[in-house]
Amino acid sequence: MPANLKVSCDRSALVDALTLASGVVPSRTTTPVLTCLKLTAKDGELVLRATDGQISLALSVPSVEVASEGEALIPADKLSQIVRTCEDSTVALDVEKNAATVKSDGSTFKIFGYDPKEYPGSRDPQTTGAFEVTAEQLRRLIARTLFATAVENARFAINGVLMERKGKRIRLVGTDGKRLAVAAGSCGGEGDMTIIVPSKSLNILVKMLGDPDAKVTIGKSDGQAVFQVEGVGTLVTSLVEGTFPPFEDVIPKDQDKRVTFDAADLAAAIRRAALLTNEESKGVRFSFKGDTLVVSSRAPEMGEAEIRVPMSGYQGDAIEIGFQPAFIVDALKVIDGQQVMLEMRSPQKPGVLKVGQEFTYVVMPVNVG
Question: What burial class does residue 204 get, using C-beta atoms within 10 Å of its C-beta: 0-12 exposed, 13-18 middle, 19+ buried?
Answer without folding.
Answer: buried
